[in-house]
């Protein structure tokens, strides 16, 4: 059996069991629906050749999302409907990277917005080429696949996926942090930045940035530059959107571990103590 298959099956079973441990027989269709959704989405993402936005990343985001919601449930009740939509949104947040999943995709061109516009990647491009369009594509996928499921509110899923857009737009409707959508965004960021393997996986993220032109725009010439920018990115760009999620995470044992991971990475980079991932070496000047 393939390792990826084991990961997919394990996550599907895990989120089903978590739902049952919290809600028991309430909304009896939901636990199997969550298991099925996890297996379907991860099977699709497993077909992607994006170097960073892969099954591993989606699993991490889903797990931290679950931890956030468990903490919130301790403060105020999260009902089964809220749990279902939140977890499905976490699973779907990066589905837009995968070629061929959206209505209107063909073998040579891929839909990029609700108006049906398409783009053809250059020869040799990976799925990371779709980074600028993946949020819109994810919304299209969610609306198309969820429209015939009576207990799924596709607008809720669309709103949550929309708020994972990054950099965060300045508009007021993207500033919420203690809502379903705002907490899905937090799960996305913490699932990346608090991943125990974050430093080791930075080379993949760097080469996605190279493909999209982001590395050049941000002045990164190698993956070590990206690693060294971690503390500044965390404190200035990510942390302002994480405060409510961190408040919920600190209430559970698993959540505390996610917080420790985040701060450990910051400390390690600030003190040049990271040994996994890109070799730091000495910077060269032109």
Descriptive notes:
With 286 residues, the protein is an all-alpha fold. The protein has a single domain (3-270), classed as 3'5'-cyclic nucleotide phosphodiesterase, catalytic domain (Catalytic domain of cyclic nucleotide phosphodiesterase 4b2b). 57% of the residues lie in helices and 1% in strands. Strands 1-2 form a two-stranded antiparallel ribbon. Strand 1 (110-111) and strand 2 (118-119) form a beta hairpin. Helix 4 packs across helix 7, helix 5 (134-146) runs antiparallel to helix 6 and helix 6 crosses helix 7. The longest helix has 21 residues, at 3-23. It starts with a helix and ends in a 16-residue tail after the last helix. The mean pLDDT is 95.
Write the layout of secondary structure elements.
Blueprint: H1 3-23, H2 30-45, H3 55-75, H4 80-92, E1 110-111, E2 118-119, H5 134-146, H6 154-162, H7 180-193, H8 202-212, H9 214-218, H10 223-228, H11 230-238, H12 243-249, H13 253-270
Antiparallel strand pairs: 1-2
Helix pairs in contact: 1-2, 2-4, 3-4, 3-7, 3-12, 4-6, 4-7, 5-6, 6-7
Keywords:
286 residues; two-stranded antiparallel sheet; Catalytic domain of cyclic nucleotide phosphodiesterase 4b2b; mainly alpha
């Amino acid at each position: 059996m393939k390792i990826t298959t084991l990961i997919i099956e394990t996550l599907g079973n895990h989120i089903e069991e978590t739902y049952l441990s919290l809600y028991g027989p309430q909304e009896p269709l939901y636990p199997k629906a969550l298991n099925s959704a996890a297996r379907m989405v991860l099977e699709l993402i497993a077909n992607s050749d994006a170097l960073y936005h892969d099954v591993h990343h989606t699993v991490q985001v889903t797990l931290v999302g679950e931890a956030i919601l468990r903490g919130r449930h301790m403060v105020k009740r999260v009902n089964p409907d809220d749990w279902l939509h939140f977890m499905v949104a976490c699973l779907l947040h990066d589905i837009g990277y995968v070629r061929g999943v959206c209505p209107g995709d063909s073998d040579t061109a891929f839909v990029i917005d609700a108006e049906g516009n398409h783009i053809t990647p250059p020869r040799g491009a990976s799925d990371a080429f779709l980074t600028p369009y993946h949020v819109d594509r994810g919304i299209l996928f969610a609306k198309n696949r969820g429209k015939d499921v009576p207990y799924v509110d596709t607008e809720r899923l669309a709103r949550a996926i929309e708020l994972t857009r990054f950099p965060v737009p300045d508009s007021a409707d993207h500033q919420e942090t203690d809502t379903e959508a705002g907490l899905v965004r937090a799960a996305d960021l913490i699932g990346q930045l608090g991943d125990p393997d974050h430093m080791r996986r930075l080379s993949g993220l760097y080469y996605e940035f190279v493909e999209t032109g982001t590395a050049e725009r941000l002045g990164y010439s190698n993956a070590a530059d990206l690693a060294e920018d971690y503390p500044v990115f965390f404190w200035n760009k990510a942390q302002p959107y994480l405060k409510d999620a961190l408040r919920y995470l600190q209430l559970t044992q698993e959540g505390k571990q996610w917080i420790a991971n985040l701060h450990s990475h910051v400390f390690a980079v600030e003190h040049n103590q990271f040994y996994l991932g890109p070799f730091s070496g000495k910077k060269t000047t032109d």
